[in-house]
Amino acid sequence: MSFVTAATSADTVVWSMQDQLGNIKGSGSFAVASGTRTSTLSCQSSAAGYFAITATLSHSGGTLPQLGTRPTGIATFGILPNLSSTIPAVSYAHQEQHRFGMQGFNDNGSMLAALGISQTIDDRELSAMEPNAANTWTPSLSDLDSFYTNGKIMRLIRLDGIPAWASPTGAFQDDTNAPSNETYYQNYMARVGTDSAAIRQQYFPNQQYNYYQVTWEPQWVDSTANFVAMYAAVYKGLHSTDPNAVVMGTTNVFPANCSTQCTQGYLATYASLGLGNYIDGVTTHGYYNAGTFAGHPPEQYDTDPNPSNVANALDQQMRSLRSQMQMVKPNMRLWMTELGITYDSGAAYGPSYPPANQLYGQAAVALRAHLIILGEGAQVTYFFYGPDYPADVGIGTFFDLADSQGQYGATNLSPKPEALAFAALTRVLDGTQTLGHLNGLPSMVYGYAFQQLNSGAVIAALWTHNNSNWPTSSGTYSSTYSTTYALTVNSTGTSGNVSVIDMMGNVSSVSYTNGVANLTLTESPIYVVLANANAIQGKYTAPVGYTGQ
């Protein structure tokens, strides 16, 4: 760690380092001479996760300056977890068995690798490839973003967006109307299929299929018949040249429990018109209510006395969506391709915002939401977004250190707790199948079971959530509220220890007796690694229609 000081006279730097919960993990002081000086400390740590450094001059005062969207007083960094001795390695038969994608770091290979991301979204919209006129794009391998040519990051191929020349509105539009010439649109999609098939063969030989997302948060004003006709044109065009096409939609803002903004509602509306004939899978965004922010957790409505409000909880929305999918076409894939958590409503970037507790709240809520999405039967979940940007305050996984209001393509970055929580999540649950939600849980306790591919170890993710502590009466998000839960981790009559991993990827050993471990659960999820997969058999409910990775 390098500290730059500009003391007017000899002084002492007093520094400390905190984790995401505010626990002091290191502190000290050192003397500095007057003038501009750089002092470097060498640090070692056995802990993984997010850390924030604070520093001041004991006589002259001062603090670390605001940089971009990162407030004054802190510099942040992360230490990635090494779980190789706790989570057995997994062998992947196919590339799409990986479970994590991300928006906001396209072409940033080092950051994607650090976070454990395996796929991003690549543009093949008509508006992107032929923005000005028809028949101006011919598929070629040279069109592929060179970032993808190493074959490490898989493509989800984006298809929404109609340029003005092809739109019945006479202007660019994104999923409000069908294109004016559906025959042309179908032929264009045939070219996209040719392009994707060649790319997969050349750069992704271990990938079984190409995956396409047709619409993106549609605000449809055209006829219902034209919506299905547009999907038919896409489906027929792609499948005519790409026998390995998986065509997916409808990618609405919310998973379920409404008709015009929810994927479940769109499936219900258009299924009777034959939409199921023209999709191979379902994509949705995972926003579980308008204004998804740290103070609005995904479990907020699970304990509501009004059943109509309970249906708004994220786990209930995911179950409703999975049930609707079964009625449209059984056992389809489900990919959640966007979910981000902002700071609290009304927040603004500034020198004193966000406080540490807001960052903790964001990380805990985002992590729990993605666990629910995977646990309720999505094969893939996408983190959103890479850096902070202006429109949705705080939604970035990283501070943008160059722009005070954030910027979409920022590369000078500093991590938030959310980034390290995601890095731990991917290292724990990538390479797993979803088993389902745990049965018989007490009120306000949440848990899901996952099993590593090839019948490997079972991993249980558990946490508690209490609305009265989120936030507390003082307006803070409690990191100390807890409850106990007895989890069966081995056969009756056995005793020993199980590995428990915290939200940042730190491992501890917890004893169990007679096959049962007594766990302390907080609002921060933990992962319990069960070497005996039989211990949890019959104790979970599988998501409807989920058929694995």
Q: Whole-Å distance between the termini?
A: 42 Å
The stretches of 5 or more residues where confidence is low (pLDDT under 50) are none
For the report, how would you describe the main beta sheet?
8 strands, parallel
Query: Mean of residue pLDDT?
Result: 97
Total beta strand runs: 25
GO molecular function: hydrolase activity, hydrolyzing O-glycosyl compounds
InterPro entries: GH, Glycosyl_Hydrolase_39
Q: What do you see in this structure?
A:
It contains nine helices and 25 strands. It has helices at 109-115, 126-129, 182-203, 224-241, 263-271, 307-310, 314-328, 356-375, 417-429; strands at residues 2-7, 11-18, 24-32, 35-40, 49-57, 75-79, 100-103, 119-123, 154-158, 210-213, 245-250, 281-284, 333-339, 380-384, 398-400, 413-415, 432-438, 445-452, 458-464, 483-488, 496-501, 507-512, 516-521, 526-530, 540-541. A hairpin with a 5-residue loop joins strand 2 (11-18) and strand 3. It has three domains: 2-64, no CATH class; 95-431, Glycosidases (TIM Barrel, Alpha-Beta Barrel), CATH 3.20.20; 437-541, Immunoglobulin-like. The two termini are 42 Å apart. The model has no long low-confidence stretch (mean pLDDT 97). The protein is an alpha/beta fold and 549 residues long. GO terms for molecular function: hydrolase activity, hydrolyzing O-glycosyl compounds. InterPro entries: GH (IPR017853), Glycosyl_Hydrolase_39 (IPR051923).
